[in-house]
Design brief:
Length: 284
């Protein structure tokens, strides 16, 4: 039986007190709770502190270029769907450099889980403003203050993601449960995780979030299949911030559209050069 010890990787090199530690523990616990062995999981990451996470756990790992982790995850999912594919990146990696890939992956609905460590700052490169920095946030690149921020939840819902949730690195049990739901869901799952950066973001701290976050399942009846209600929740930020499953909709998977449901995955299909020869013939 799989245990947390099976997911013990290298010693993390994050700053002491970083919110990434909570995300690492929650992801490992979620995989253990779901009964996945490390060899059954593929973690694809980009560049940044969040991108280092796969090195600090166990499993199959592909370290991609900055903002390019999602297309690699999609390719792996199509080629070998027996793997549980998890794309891992920061807010800059996913919403900035990789924003175009995220947008089209969500609307097509590939069956991958996308975990975003959202610390609202570029931590690895010493504190520049990111796409999710609060308006007015002053950094070396925004001395007059950052402009309007990307709203990841509204972006996910509006772009067609079939599962959109938000977690908080300071609430480990709740985050573990949310990641479990996202991994178990069949379809593109976007999980925006509030991850305080203790070195370069002195505004959105653990204390700041704890005074504002609330669990949706503790606020009476909430139905995550109601898109209008979900968009209303997406607009909440400054005073109250909802965490949990914000939107959920079961839709056809795009990989079924590509391969059909009765064909073996690409990794198990016989290699044929006929198509390649025909393609090359067009150039001669």
């Amino acid at each position: 039986m799989v245990t947390m010890a099976d997911y013990t990787g290298l010693k993390p090199a994050w700053c002491k007190g970083c919110g990434n530690f909570g995300i690492l523990k929650a992801l490992n616990q979620a995989l253990v709770n779901l009964g996945f062995e490390p060899h059954q999981v593929l973690m694809v990451s980009g560049i940044g502190d969040a991108g280092k996470l796969p090195h600090y756990t166990k499993g199959n790992v592909f370290h991609a270029l900055h903002g390019r982790h999602i297309p690699v995850a999609i390719g792996a999912r199509i080629a070998y769907p027996e793997l549980k594919v998890i794309a891992i990146g920061g807010d800059g990696d996913t919403y900035g450099e990789g924003g175009n890939h995220l947008l089209h992956a969500m609307r097509r609905n590939f069956d991958i889980t996308c975990l975003v460590h959202n610390n609202q700052v570029y931590g690895l490169t010493k504190g520049q403003a990111s796409p999710t920095s609060d308006p007015g946030f002053e950094t070396s690149t925004t001395p007059q203050g950052a402009g309007p921020a990307v709203n990841p939840i509204a972006l996910g819902i509006g772009s067609g993601a079939s599962f959109v949730g938000r977690g908080f690195a300071g609430d480990g049990q709740h985050l573990t449960e949310l990641i479990e739901q996202a991994i178990s869901f069949q379809g593109f799952a976007l999980v925006d995780i509030l991850q305080p950066c203790v070195s370069f973001n002195t505004r959105n701290t653990f204390k700041w979030f704890r005074e504002r976050v609330y669990r949706l399942d503790e606020e009476g009846e909430y139905e995550p299949t109601d898109k209008k209600a979900a968009l209303d929740k997406a607009s909440e930020w400054e005073e109250r911030i909802p965490i949990g499953t914000i939107y959920r909709e079961q839709k056809p998977l795009f990989e079924h559209h590509i391969l059909g449901t009765d064909r073996p995955p690409l990794a198990k299909q016989e290699i044929s050069l006929a198509g390649v020869e025909k393609l090359l013939g067009d150039f001669y």
